[in-house]
Amino acid sequence: MIKYSTRSFNDKQIRAIWDERKAIWRYSAVDFIAVLINPHSPRRYWNNIKVRNPQLLEFCGQAKLYASDNKKYLTDVIDENDVRLLLTIVPSKYKKEIQDWLKGMLDPIDEQSKRKAYQLYQTSLISEDEIGKTIALQKIHAFLFEGLYPFAGQIRTKTIAKNGFVFANGDFFPQILPKIDKMAEDNFDHIVEKYVEMNIAHPFLEGNGRATRIWLDLMFMKNLKKCVDWSKIDKDEYLLAMKESPLNDLKIKKLLKDALTEEIDNRELFVKGIDASYYYES
Predict the structure, then answer these.
(1) At residue 131, what are phi and psi to the nearest 5 degrees?
(2) Which of 23, 26, 232, 272 is buried most, with the most CB atoms less than 10 Å from its CB?
(3) Are 78 and 169 part of one and the same domain?
(4) Would the CA dihedral through 39, 40, 41, 44 be positive or negative?
(5) Phi, psi of 194 (to 5 degrees)
(6) Three-class secondary structure of residue 176 per DSSP
(7) What pLDDT, on a 0 to 100 scale, did the predictor assign at position 245?
């Protein structure tokens, strides 16, 4: 799947697309012009710069990026080295800030998202009556991936598969998700069964595991006054247990039960859990 991202600088959006062949992010050149110069017409300004500076054509590529109408259009894209060259050509008061911003934006999506996940400990993002509901999961996903994926917090409409397993058809979510919302969460078994059903649904295009594990812990904390010490769960064992869970949830139940702890207010445990959760996806 092509990875798109929308970054933010001074409340202005910079669209990006992942170049899998070179393993780098490429950014919309027009968006960078809007950030650096803020002209009346960023596209016209960019085209004029290309005419006056033909060396820009040597590194500038093209890719289809989403526009404000949610359709994809072919646009000029540049990587981080190209941005630095652009900074030597375009007069802007934001040159230093852009260079600092780039250092953070060059981190992989998981690293950026993980830093956001650490912040969840200090927020009151989810109200108690939302815990265990789809709306809570959407809020978590949006918090983790806002500015990284254009679909952060949005329920997918496309049907997706992973390792040969086809997740729920996106057309059926209006029926599926309300049923999951109503599933019981009054004891350990019911909570895990609800977690497994949400995993089968896989409501987002990316980032389901990272968001849903936090969602699971919120249910444990609310109903059992416990949470999972994810650092105690081996990656391979967890992935195998989750793969088997649609047909047999005994393995995942045992792994989770053995890792339960009453240290729900331990921030260090929370951070370790986030590290482990993100490691499962690496």
Answers:
(1) -60, 130
(2) 26
(3) no
(4) negative
(5) -65, -40
(6) helix
(7) 96
* Residue 75 vs residues 17, 39, 56, 70, 125: alpha-carbon distances, Å: 11, 18, 14, 14, 36
189 and 253 Cβ atoms separated by less than 8 Å: yes
User: pLDDT grade, residue 103 (50/70/90)?
Assistant: low
Say whether both 64 and 123 belong to one domain.
no
Give the tens place of pLDDT for each residue, 161-190: 887 788 989 899 999 999 999 999 999 999
Where in the sequence is the domain holding 16, given as residue range(s)? 4-106
The residue type at 236: D
One domain, residues 179 and 42 = no
121, 101: one domain: no
148 three-class SS? coil
Helix (H) or strand (E) holding 30: helix 29-36
CA distance 25 to 17: 6
The secondary element (H helix, E strand) that includes residue 71 is: none
Q: What is the pTM of this model?
A: 0.66
Strand partners for 78: 27
Closest of 225, 233, 243, 215 to residue 275, by C-alpha: 233
Say if residue 128 is exposed, middle or buried (CB neighbours under 10 Å; 0-12, 13-18, 19+): exposed
Q: How many beta carbons lie within 10 A of that of residue 174, not counting itself?
A: 9
> Measuring CA to CA, which residue among 167, 166, 183 is closest to residue 219?
183
